[in-house]
TrEMBL record:
It comes from Obba rivulosa. Residues 1-14 have a biased composition (Basic residues). One of its GO terms (molecular function) is cysteine-type deubiquitinase activity. CDD domains: OTU_OTUD6-like. Signal peptide: none annotated. This is Cysteine proteinase. The lineage of its organism: Eukaryota, Fungi, Dikarya, Basidiomycota, Agaricomycotina. GO terms for biological process: protein deubiquitination. Pfam families: OTU (PF02338).
Amino acid sequence: MAGSKKNKSKKLHASSHIPIPPPPMEDDELMNDLMAQLDSQDAVVQGESATVLNEIHLQKVASGDKLDGVPPGKHDSKARYKARQARRAAALAEQYTPSDPEADARLRQQAEDEERIIKRTCDELNVELFEITPDGHCLFSAVADQLALLGILPQEKASYATCRHAAADYIQLHPDDFLPFLPAAGGEDSLGATSNTGLMSRFEFDKYCSTIRNTGAWGGEPEILALCRAYSVPIHVIQGTTPSIVIHHPSGDPGRGSIQDGKVVRISYHRRMYGLGEHYNSLRPKSGGGKVLASLKSALTS
């Protein structure tokens, strides 16, 4: 963090005895600084940033602004992204208890356990974590990075936008494979839900696909499965819980081959490592892979 930015944010919460005046919303530089600090693994920094951002959120609510944080006529992707981040910061601030050292220690321990398990699995696979920007596109960016490494996508097309379109297009073309796993926003009693099922109507389904394709909406299991099938390549998700590797296969059967034989996309899923919550990174091969291959050949021939 640049010194000027850091000093600027420190002034906001330098003393717990003085009320913290929320910074003006037009100060994009400071807002970006605070958002970045939410990803700090330092619980104090994380909590202070969340508190300031929550003050901003509460001030907007008190002044009668829209709760989604997007001013009228301001519905571009940048505005939606800021609104989503502000809501996440508000939720984090509500959960954060800086006066509870036991809760802080518990969260730190969970993050450390997750990091240890993921690192152990990565060591076994001879891969290492490649950091992906935590901006809402992380799943798609991580998969794009892997597809470029595997030669499935040319480097110039390996972007979150390409993977977003691929996932959304595949889901929209195969509604029967995905609708049963996509609940309506408000459950079975919500407006637009299909009768007695709580699942999305076709209108909601099309809107969901458009959201995945054109916004910064976070991707999850449905999108991983869609990308797996769209590019005919297995996607292995390494995580800090059991099982340590979740396998998604294009055919639905890990025992069967695929078009991209011998190629596997490997990404990591982090629940506690980052301040903003769920996050995906790409897992690239470690240097010195030739030594591993040599040892494997030796073991097979002995």
